[in-house]
Design brief:
This protein has helices at residues 17-29, 42-52, 67-74, 89-94, 96-116, 136-150, 177-186, 204-217, 233-240, 284-287, 314-323, and strands at residues 8-12, 34-39, 57-61, 79-82, 121-127, 161-167, 189-192, 198-200, 223-226, 230-232, 245-248, 260-262, 270-272, 276-279, 303-304. The protein is α/β, with parallel strands linked by helices and 337 residues long. The structure holds NADP nicotinamide-adenine-dinucleotide phosphate (NAP).
Length: 337
Amino acid sequence: MSAFSGKTVLVTGGTGSFGQHFISVVLDRHDPLAVRVYSRDELKQYEMQRRFSDPRLRFLLGDVRDAERLRRAVQGADIVVHAAALKQVPACEYNPFEAVKTNTLGTQNVAEACIDADVWRAIALSTDKAVNPANLYGATKACAERLFVQANVYVGHGRTRLACVRYGNVVGSRGSVVPLFRDQADHGRLTLTDRRMTRFWITLDQAVAFVTRSIERMRGGEIFVPKIPSMRVVDLAEAIAPGIALGVTGIRPGEKLHEALLASEEARHTTDGGDCYVIEPEQPFWADRGREEGAPVPDGFSFTSDANTEWLGVDELRRLLAETTVERRAATAPAVA
Ligand SMILES: NC(=O)c1ccc[n+]([C@@H]2O[C@H](COP(=O)([O-])OP(=O)(O)OC[C@H]3O[C@@H](n4cnc5c(N)ncnc54)[C@H](OP(=O)(O)O)[C@@H]3O)[C@@H](O)[C@H]2O)c1
């Protein structure tokens, strides 16, 4: 039986790329009692309501910055998936206080609301940009990860367990590079910031399946990192528009040439969990929860997009793109978000 069966699930950011896909999978395959969407914009909720028309769905308007509203919203929820975030690197750089309020303080509010309402499982979504962050978005998410992991300290005798998942670029999500490249291809020229750039690659389906599995296996305090392949951004451009002219705009502030999903400093408390790495907390509360099964990763190990052992070439990228739903609203910057 699914961990979601008969449960009430709340998804912050439920109208986003991840949220909508996650909710459709949970409703179709996991038999929840109810699913609550928690987000700010009534239009997105209205559109989603029309798209899904499922009586188990509830639409709650609210901001993760609003602790009081959140506390009420999570009452009676068993599972909370925290996906709400500001995630565009340039927008976070230009609006730094807003990024902190939503991504960091908002995450603290979610953790506190979950503990106070005795929610059974809470999982927060994080990103490769949180590893050795080079921009404010990454820094807010790094802090959010720590808040969610360390919030387990406040649980006491309650049943709440909090954990994170951390993964790389979701292909085709809102504001990602794929819709940008497709829009640019219509105008005959693609721009990228640096020809050497590499990124991790995960599809929305894989991200949703990974979060679902992580909720089922978590003990509270882990950061789950899926083993996913890398791609060269020039190969992605070639897969989308073969032979097209490429403009190189130069690396943006806060952008990295390569991303990391696991830092070498994390290796000494990371286990190889088969299809994923599990970063375990270095805290006393973890001792009571048992160790992960699997071998520890070698000391000093890191998982980076340039040193990956799994790569997607042009043909494979083209095949995967053909199977992927891409949200057409493109990023405005020539970026690899
Ligand atoms: N997409 C990727 O490539 C990627 C990769 C790794 C990790 N992640 C993480 O995955 C999560 C989901 O990403 P996504 O691609 O689904 O993002 P998205 O499509 O931009 O959706 C973000 C959602 O958050 C809501 N939201 C934003 N600010 C909010 C606030 N203050 N209070 C409540 N809701 C708020 C938005 O709705 P309203 O605007 O209506 O509030 C929307 O529903 C994020 O945490 C992101 O950091 C994404």
